[in-house]
Design goal:
The complex is a heterodimer of chains A (531) and B (331). Chain A has 531 residues and is α+β, with helices and mostly antiparallel strands. Chain A contains 20 helices and 22 strands. In chain A, the strands form 5 sheets. In chain A, strands 4, 5, 6, 7, 8, 9 and 10 form a 7-stranded mixed beta sheet that branches. The radius of gyration of chain A is 26 Å and the shape is globular. Chain B is α/β, with parallel strands linked by helices and 331 residues long. Chain B has 2 domains: 178 residues, Ribonuclease Z/Hydroxyacylglutathione hydrolase-like (Metallo-beta-lactamase, Chain A), CATH 3.60.15.10; 127 residues, Rossmann fold. The two termini of chain B are 39 Å apart. The chains are: A alpha+beta (531), B alpha/beta (331). At the A-B interface, helix 5 and helix 6 of A face helix 5 and helix 7 of B.
Chain lengths: 531, 331
């Protein structure tokens, strides 16, 4: 556990990729095989089931620290991270040595049966560890319950570290790590070192990701060298059809068969074993539905018939990675596309249409039609490009529409988390609304956490401290005075929000020091932006 | 109700009976100064009163000022109000200021810590009716580790860097933290270099309290000849040009704020060492209890939370606004 806690510390302290890779590789060299498998599982999001919810953790931590709940909550809001707060409050000053404590894998495996244990057993389990761990181990331990490690360790970074340690190519390791495997049952040998034919059947390929195009289209050279299509606003997915079974994988390497059962029969349409790259889209009347519709499908672990009828989905194919058991990724895009087009499309299997412009100006025009087509913009793929792994510059680009924006008034501020835990940085914004009998008032329409520089944050923060009207725990209501331009990717009607609208990816674009609150937008301006 | 012995005015903490201010933030005629940090010891007062160890430091920082030096526990009267200074343990010369009049006693803590740093004169609790306390780290998340343990962490970090041919740059406030580090770290591992601002402070502080003399990092020091050195520098030089010459280097800060990952990352250091010249939550509680005060006024730090905590423990506490702001890099 101590070695793992130390690894977490090192990963946390550096932003340099190669230092993280080195630290991980070094950990793998020293750790037992069982611990290695668990660390791979943890860093790829395969944590043991959450045995204890956070409200119990907070309660027990308050008791262990001998403080009242309100003081725990205040402290948590200042520190910003629950696992860290608890470690600061309850870790031992005279911790046990690593030898006196169970190994990492033993602790993690004991969490699995803990899930079904009685509450007081859980409490004894957790509090006993708290009283024996030093700060770092306690922090790492708490993370098993509270969520992601967020240490800037991508899947790629971990496979690189494993490559360094095992001399097996990172791509091959990435393939081995995809899909469902149980760290309790699999050995390091069978997961990483052994040839693994059987599991290959379900496995997708690592996704190739596009860079955002920052220059004009013309900077890409000759337009005839590029394949151009719309950028669909769904979720990126691979459809794997092998040995008469269909597997649907999201970009986060999650198997999403359960949410989209209607696509599992696509094998009958495809007939030939293959792997397609494409977009899962909510789709009705030959047109994509907004992303918010798809979200309703994604949110359910299993989909109901009613929901399937209400929000039909399609797989919009745009690339072919494997055909008749042959890996096509090294072939140029044009060839893969040719082969792809030979499938029969229709119904739940759609082909992403290719646009064949003669000039970049026509590409620009097509981008202008994105909204009516229900897309986010355009994708540009070099015709002679292979299908690569990860985000690589130069051959795949996305060109997104400018975001929608409104000017809104800062109404509430909450202390930030993590990096900004001592600043008020989580902002709530309001737009004007005039109901029939009342005067105009500011109605909350979005919260935003990012978009300002550290320097601007400090300035806004000082302003907030001087302009607080009311306090609600970590939240302050402030004078309506500052105007910010808020950008978002989409807006839809929502009964769950007080304003009646939900925005997608709201963020602060800039501080409009030049505007007074009277110049901020009205709620009905959102109506005009509805898709 | 009778007038309070000390009150909070727009110029500072004021004693109307004696017509004197404690750590005033606007120019006044007469000021009693708790310690030489810039937010407590400001420029522009006509007359200063301070502990004898603070005097040369204040003169170094503020230039030619008229200042009367006092010893710990030395009592002096102003208009019938008896004042005295008592060690606060924060930095060299830092004092609590005690004011007594007609059997009523108030103590203003200034900044303080209870744990011994083995260099600064340790805090001496004073009994009083009203205790005006700082609470910079007044939430229970702050629990300081043992100083020797932290110094060991710093030495290990430095040693590790030196072994990799990397220079260690350790940021600490130039008055207080820098002397504490200079006193406890020795250059057995590799050369220890002091930023000129810190070197100048060390020279002054050395005159009242001896310090080991380390090398000054001036223009002539060749980075190539000092690979693996430890440089102690003020935090505001983190982005300064001179640092580039020392590539490759690692940075760290020694501060109480380093206890949280968020604060460390926000300031962009590679490593943080938890070393504070303020008390942690328990030290504050111990000081408040030891004062046996009937009521407590919290001046700076987590004032609202800490005063609420004291009230929940049956100790009457209020807050007062002061501009004693922890400079972001100070502690």
């Amino acid at each position: 556990m101590k070695n793992f806690a130390h690894l977490i510390e090192v990963l946390d302290q550096t932003t340099k990729t190669n230092e993280k890779v080195d630290a991980l590789a070094q950990y793998f060299r020293l750790a037992s095989d069982k611990d290695k498998v668990w660390v791979i599982a943890l860093l790829s999001g395969r944590r043991p089931p959450r045995a204890v919810n956070t409200s119990l953790l907070r309660q027990w931590a308050s008791e262990s620290a001998g403080i009242e709940n309100w003081l725990f909550e205040e402290t948590y809001h200042i520190v910003g991270d629950l696992a860290e707060t608890i470690a600061l409050l309850v870790s031992s000053n005279n911790p046990k040595t690593a030898e006196e404590m169970p190994a990492l894998h033993e602790i993690l495996e004991s969490l699995i049966p803990l899930k079904n244990a009685e509450e007081d057993q859980k409490k004894i389990f957790v509090c006993t560890y708290w009283s024996k761990f030093d700060y770092l181990s306690c922090f790492a331990f708490n993370k098993f319950f509270t969520g992601g490690f967020r240490l800037g360790v991508s899947q790629r970074l971990m496979t690189k570290a494993l490559e360094k340690y095992t001399q097996i190519e990172a791509d091959e390791i990435a393939l081995k790590l995809m899909g469902n495997w149980d760290p309790q049952k699999v050995s390091f040998e069978s997961l990483i070192l052994a040839e693994n034919k059987e599991a290959h059947e379900a496995k997708p390929y690592p996704f190739y990701l596009a860079y955002a195009l920052e220059d004009d289209f013309s900077a890409l050279g000759d337009v005839s060298l590029w394949a151009i299509e719309h950028k669909w606003d769904g979720i990126r997915a691979q459809l794997v059809f092998r040995n008469n079974s269909v597997y649907l994988w999201s970009r986060g390497e999650e198997l999403i068969n359960a949410q989209f059962p209607e696509l599992l029969s696509l094998g009958q349409v495809l007939q030939t074993s293959c792997v397609l790259d494409g977009e899962l889209l909510a789709f009705q009347d030959k047109k994509p539905l907004p992303f918010s519709a798809l979200q309703k499908r994604l949110g359910r672990k299993k989909s109901s018939e009613k929901l399937r009828a209400e929000i039909p989905v399609v797989f919009m194919a745009y690339d072919l990675l494997e055909y008749q058991a042959e890996d096509l990724r090294a072939q140029p895009y044009s060839k893969r596309r040719q082969q792809l087009e030979r499938f029969s499309f229709g119904g739940p299997l759609q082909l992403s249409e290719r646009i064949t412009p003669a000039h970049w100006s026509q590409v620009e025009e097509e981008k202008g039609r994105s909204k009516e087509k229900g897309s986010e913009g355009l994708m540009l793929k070099k015709l002679d490009a292979p299908y690569r792994v990860g985000r690589k510059k130069g051959e795949w680009f996305k060109s997104k529409l400018d975001p929608m924006t409104v000017d809104a008034v800062l109404t509430y501020a909450m202390r930030g988390h993590g990096r900004r835990s001592n600043l008020y940085t989580d902002f709530t914004f309001g737009l004007w609304h005039t109901s029939t009998e009342k005067e105009a008032e500011l109605v909350t329409f979005a919260k935003a956490y990012s978009g300002l520089t550290d320097k601007e944050f400090v300035e806004v923060n000082q302003w907030i401290k001087k302009n607080t009207i009311a306090r609600f725990g970590p939240v302050r209501q402030v004078n309506a005075e500052l105007v910010f331009e808020i950008a978002f990717e989409g807006v839809s009607k929502s009964s769950r929000h007080k304003s009646g609208y939900a925005t997608r990816f709201p963020r602060i674009l800039r501080w409009r020091k030049d505007k007074t609150i009277e110049e901020a937008n009205h709620l009905h301006d959102l109506e005009a932006l509805l898709q | 109700m009778k007038d309070p012995l000390l009150e909070f005015s727009d110029k500072g903490i004021y004693c109307p009976k004696a017509d004197v201010y404690l750590d005033p933030w606007r120019p006044v005629d007469k000021a009693i100064i708790s310690h030489a940090h810039a937010d407590h010891s400001r420029w522009g007062h006509k007359k200063y009163i301070a502990h004898e160890h603070s005097v040369p430091i204040m003169q170094h920082r503020l230039g030619d000022i008229e200042v009367a030096a006092k010893k710990w526990g030395e009592s002096f009267s102003i208009n019938g109000v008896r004042f005295s200074l008592h060690p606060a343990g924060h930095i060299v010369g830092s004092s609590q200021i005690k004011a007594s009049y007609k059997g009523e006693t108030w103590v203003f803590s200034g900044d303080y810590k209870l744990h011994h740093d083995h260099y600064t004169t340790p805090f001496e609790p004073q009994k009083c009716d009203v205790f005006i306390t700082e609470c910079t780290f007044g939430i229970p998340a702050f629990r300081w580790p043992d100083q020797e343990q932290v110094m060991e962490q710093i030495r290990n970090w430095w040693q590790q860097n030196a072994a990799n041919g990397v220079t260690s740059v350790l940021f600490g406030y130039s008055l207080g933290k820098a002397q504490r580090l200079s006193y406890h770290l020795n250059d057995a591992i590799a050369p220890l270099l002091l930023h000129p601002v810190i070197y100048a402070h060390n020279e002054v502080v050395h005159s009242v309290k001896p310090l080991p003399m380390h090398q000054k990092l001036d223009q002539g020091v060749d980075p190539k000849a000092h690979r693996g050195a430890l440089i102690i520098a003020p935090p505001n030089t983190q982005d300064a040009q001179w640092l580039k010459k020392w590539e490759p280097y690692k940075t760290a800060a020694a501060s109480g704020w380093m206890a949280t990952r968020g604060a460390r990352r926000r300031r962009g250091y590679d490593t943080g060492f938890v070393l504070s010249d303020h008390g942690d939550f328990n030290e504050l509680n111990t000081a408040v209890r030891a004062s046996e005060a009937e009521s407590v006024i919290c001046t700076h730090g987590y004032t609202e939370i800490y005063s609420k905590y004291l009230n929940s423990k049956g100790i009457r506490a209020t807050t007062a606004d002061t501009p004693f702001e922890e400079e972001p890099n100070e502690s």
